[in-house]
Amino acid sequence: MTSALEYIFGGYRKAPPFFLQKHMKKFIAFILITILLVCLQTKSIYAQAVSDPSANIKGKGQSSGFDFRVENLRNYLEKFNSPLAPYANDIVANADKNGLDYRLVPAISGVESTFGKYIPNDTYNAYGWANGNYSFTSWPDSIDQVSETLKSGYIDKGAPTIAKIAKRYAPPSTTWGYNVKYFVSKIDTLPLNFDI
């Protein structure tokens, strides 16, 4: 017994979709050519092979001249008219030298002094050291000392996260660590280079 649909449309047969019925060979050829072209276009490029004589391959401890982190940090600090903005390169270099995330020191300065804008005169203390009563000799000196101390006095001594640094850096505060994390995420949305 045949159903009404089989009677009207005929028996069930698997036919290609309508748009492929007349052009099946062309369609298959198009797909194969597209796959072939994609495969031919994807190849590995090695910097050593494509660099011209003026290019230098960055080795450990060498600088390539441009670091997006420096420009990113400088642009961010300039939004706040921070006196630290011209020292973005120093901040990144000291972070690299001490194995810190480049956003940590400026984030602390954001919490402690709105990125160095509100500090005691001529102290260069954007970090709240000694409740603002400590004086550095210059911005580069402050960046260097704070970076080294964060590494040797905090991270190397069992405080590898912002939360643990907060317990030693600003012990009475329950919001300091959260605020530092906030500025870290605003400076750059990349994940932290160390655990939170």
Strand content: under 5%
SSE arrangement, N to C: HHHHHHHHHH
* Number of helical stretches of at least 4 residues: 10
* Helix proportion: 40-55%
The end-to-end span amounts to 72 Å
Main sheet: strands, sense, barrel: none
**Counted beta strands:** 0
* Envelope shape: elongated
Query: What would you call the structural class?
Result: mainly alpha
Question: Low-confidence stretches at least 5 residues in length (pLDDT < 50)?
Answer: 44-61
CATH topology of the domain at 69-187: Lysozyme
Global mean pLDDT: 80
| The level-1 CATH class of the domain at 69-187 | Mainly Alpha
Q: Please give the CATH architecture of the domain at 69-187.
A: Orthogonal Bundle
User: What is the CA-based Rg, rounded?
Assistant: 30 Å
Notes on the structure:
The protein is mainly α and 196 residues long. The chain has a domain at 69-187: Lysozyme (Orthogonal Bundle), CATH 1.10.530. The protein is 52% helix and 0% strand. The chain contains ten helices and no strands. The protein has helices spanning 4-9, 18-21, 24-41, 47-50, 68-79, 88-98, 104-113, 139-154, 162-169, 176-187. The radius of gyration is 30 Å and the shape is elongated. It starts with a helix and ends in a 9-residue tail after the last helix.
